[in-house]
Task: structure prediction
Amino acid sequence: MVRQFEVERFYYEEAALLDAHRYEEWLALFSEDTYYFMPIRRTRMRRELDKEFTQPGEMAFFDDTKAQLASRVGKLATGRSWSEDPPSRTRHLITNIRVVQDNGEELDVESNFHLYRTRLKSEEDSWIGSRKDTLRRVEGSFQIARRTIFLEQTVLLSRNLSNFF
Amino acid sequence: METAPSGSPATSALDIDSLVSTETGHIDRRIYSDPEIFELEIERIFGRAWLFLCHESQIPEPGDFFESVMGRDNVLVVRQKDGGIKGLLNTCMHRGNAVCRAEEGNAKSFLCTYHGWSYGIDGALTGVPGYRDFYGSELDRTKIHLREVAQIANFKGFIFGTHDESAPPLEEYLGATGRLGLNLLAARGDLEVVPGIQKFVIDCNWKFALDNLFDWYHPQVTHASAFQSGAIAGRPARAATRNEGAMDMTGVVMESGDDLGVPVGEITGRPFDQVVVLGEYGHAIGGPTRSSPGNVELNHSWRDQPGVAETLGPIGIDVAGHPSIFPTTWITTTSQLSLRIPRGPSETEIWWFTFVDRKASPEFRRFIVGLANRIFGPAGVLEQDDGENWAQSTMQTHGAASREIPNLINMGLGRGQIIKEHGLARIESTTNEHAQLWTYRSWARWMQGLDWADLGEQTTPGDSI
Result:
């Protein structure tokens, strides 16, 4: 119960940082060896569902190391990142949090998310999906050592993905 | 399909010639949002042009299929048992339902889930439920076949199709410019497509996405944040140094009044560092030369491989810009091919195919895939800012007053002296808008519904642009 509470609190704090545009602090939640991956999903027949998602080494929407995530955060901080200036308004809802494995040092955690975004006067995006994270215990809290994001879309129905999941 | 005569009601009402002026470089903004013009594009451009469908490496085994798009037609590109490739319209010959709902995969047959008509992977009708009892065996099943795309052809592994059976052969349609464009990708080795086609929708007209591909005026501003932050290389930026001939940003200030502070040294070069190649049917290549400091090609060692100089030719070997196969195919210096698929006047689907040499080292493969994932696509540090421009540009063409303002494609207007050598028509220049104007000029010729001979003749480059 304590572990579940700690993991949930970690995710809520993370979501709050993103929605407040506190990207540097958000970045600090990731380990130096992190891998942030959002595969491409494809509509396949049920018998070929094992090929639904692309794998690391293949094409993806996000395929980032810590340095690459840092450069995205740096891009937002330039004041010239036009797809986010004026900034989007986002709300991250994190639910269905399940610790599926715990070896003491690292936890495999699955969660669902709803990222709602409005932008400028009339633009609205909504992304729902799931995340599979590896959380590493560090100094009484966690670091995200690996995150894979699975969207419930194949053809992405938005003009960009300029936000973090 | 027959082409519409130029005196049909649609053209007389529209007066295509008034929409694009090569004299002034003025483009009528209605072409980006008018539904009537869009419908005419579907008929006169997408109903006739050779369109890229997929690469043969995506469908290696019999029954492998990839669903592509030609105008508003969904097309199944299917590997046959004899190794050939067919393009089949994804619509049942009975009542039109799709016979395949997956984007890609392997099929033994295609089943219509409405009444159960089934087809072989060659499109032949193999099963009709109730054939004897309900149809009284009177349906001539041998004459019913999934409709094949009028022509399909393979250029070095790149599969194209056209709805027009009278269209010239693909190689002739591509011409020297289109073939060079594809060779700038094909010459990189024994190519295969990296699994995963990025697909996303931008609320813009397809022509904004098209003319941007050889727009070398925008990166310094549109992509300032990506250059400044080092996000393209995926590492912190080094200090920019100002190159000779870098874009003059004097007087460019932000809403805050601050200087825009663009790191010009990273991405611009000397004057006369660009080469533009213009071709029949509207194909064009525009951008830096190989030796120019403005060259953004991160790896061009492939150009030194045996046979590449002969394939590309003396002009092509130095071309490091962006080829466009009219209407919607863009080949990048990053070993990728992008489609700008029109879904409506204000809606365009972007697809990205990424290619790598089968014999490439694991390190080089990682480099190509990593770069592609980082810079293009919806999360790409370059492309996420492009969509913002194209969507807003499209939106402003709806205003009654705003749409009366012409868009300007007039940089270097009339100064593009065309040099014809080695079968190519080229312009040597600094940053310019010649390739964009050539694209719109050719677009207008297509929209007039000319026959193929006239279209080829009227889209042959002259002495200047």
About this structure: Residues 1-12 of chain B have pLDDT under 50 and may be disordered. Chain B is about 25% helix and 20% strand. The first helix of chain B runs from residue 9 to 14.
